[in-house]
Amino acid sequence: MLGNGAQNVLPELVEYTFPPWIVGLYVAAVLSAIMSTVSSLIVMAAGSLTHDLYEQIYNPALNDAQAARLCRIITFLLAVVALLIAVTVAVVSPDRTIFWFAIFGWSGIAATFCPMIILSLFWAGFTERAAIASMLAGFFMTIASKFLLQELHAVGDYFAALETMPPSFLSALLVGYWVSKAWPDESLSAHYRDDLAHCR
Question: CA angle at residue 102 from 98 to 108, to 5 degrees?
Answer without folding.
Answer: 145
